[in-house]
Write a structure and sequence with these properties.
Number of helices: 9
Structural class: alpha+beta
Helix content: 25-40%
Number of strands: 12
Radius of gyration: 19 Å
Strand content: 15-25%
Distance between the termini: 54 Å
Strand order of the largest sheet: 2-4-3-7-8-6-12-5
Number of domains: 1
Order of helices and strands: EEHHHEEHEEHEEHEEEEHHH
Largest sheet: 8 strands, antiparallel, barrel
Length: 298
Amino acid sequence: MRTNGIVATAVVSFLLCSPVRANKYGSVEPIANAAVIDTSPLRDQPLNVREAFATRLLQCGIVDRVVHALSATKAITTINDLNTHVSVGAGGFAGVTNPSYVFTVIDDGPNAASIDDVKVLTDSLGYVMSQGSAFLLDSDDPSSFDFSANYVVLNFATPPPLAASAALFEKVGRIDRELFATETSGYTQYGRAYLSLQSAVTNERFIEGYVRAAAAFGVEYTPVIDGTPSLFQGGAAFPGNDWTADTLGEEYLSRIPARSHRALARIRAFHLRVTRDVLRRLEHDRRSAADVASFDCR
């Protein structure tokens, strides 16, 4: 299916399932970068096993610990459970779907979170989880983060399981490999909304691929402006750290107030300890999702 007419870019934000409008979105994967620790035995597990690992870590309060450490040291002052929501969702990159901690942040109104606090929180989660990079998007302000970015949102009727998001990503790949298998191809699932930044292809090709995928998968393509499939535009960033060069996470730490470093280092040590524990058990025996998620939170 070819789209006709002029490609329009909508500088608007999209709604998730909740009645509250969030303006900023982020994601951080919980499985450590391979340059820090060889996590291939865990990464090679089925998606439901990796999801169980991510869910258990979230139940252990790893994100809450980070927020508490930053708040206690006054590195952030505006992040709270009224304006920020974190859950385990699907995130895809270069043809692979992994569980991610996806978060939505309200940045306007009387209980708004500041952009500086959102950045510090994201860097701190990336550091604690030993990630090569994290993801940030301002849904309606192309100037807020590092670069302006076009994106589309495909809406499920209800929030899907991670496997359904992965299947949609694979459907996109069967339609156009350049929207699936490259280092500019990916997506993040927020509630019922599957969000994908534009890959390194033309506007027309990106829209056409996702319009076809939405129709084939039975989900809603947005935005559509005056009957024409179009693009949202926002501001995005991929804050990160090169763990081969900066083995202590120096890039992340340079952007986080120093008074929080010690507390965050303790949380990172916990994350690495439970990761190694799970890897040891996977090395000696095939484990079920329940077994992988049975580690101690202390």
